Amino acid sequence: MAFRRILAVGDIHGDLERLQALWGQIAFDDTQDLLIFLGDYIDRGAASVETLQFVRGQTERCENVHALLGNHEAMMLSYIRTNGLDDFDPMSIWLMNGGNMTQRQLSALPEEESEELIAFVKARPLYFRMTYMGQSILFVHAGVHPRRKKQTSRDLLWIRDDFFDNYCGPELVVVGHTPTQAIGSRDRNRNRPLFLPNNIIACDTGAFLSGGCLSCVDIARYLTLRSHGAALTAEDLASCYIQSA
Length: 245
Known about the structure:
By secondary structure, the chain is an alpha/beta fold. Helices cover 35% and strands 17% of the residues. It has a single domain (5-243), classed as Metallo-dependent phosphatases (Purple Acid Phosphatase, chain A, domain 2), CATH 3.60.21.10. The chain is built from nine helices and ten strands.
């Protein structure tokens, strides 16, 4: 299918209000568009379970909406395997990274509902790959190890600086995970997606940070503009994404 738009949504972290606003701005059309959620739907924000339910609902209603696993979902699954939902591990890396509120929200659900949500998370893939205009595109939560042909789940879910500093592959890699405020020359006010010269698009614009927002990047528009051969202006790049109001 030739898609009109190929969309990637960065880390949400329980910010249901911004997600709903962004979804309305996107005006997704399942007959023409493809959309990838890049993971980290839960933790830090106040509405992790409702955000997870919203994402699951879109994947069920729309054939061309896909949701990847993020490192926060991976931490949640690891915690549940060890402790269940009703136990408490004060040294858990998940609880220490915002999972305590998510745990309470999941525990408050009827058992069948919590089990369905956990099953949804378990079924999330680590990546999504496609080709557009002859360009291979990899959608993944964190990135890839620049010196490994065979990637591990740890690479795909957790890698940061080594990926941004050393990746130089021909495949376009679209990621969330690392807020754009923390990439390269750190700038707490840089809350826009980054289109990096080493074939990386960074979509996590720090929805949970002060001054951050939630972003959706149109990969198809970016590749179409890039195919013209001229250097892209700030205005060109700004036309490639939508941000939460």
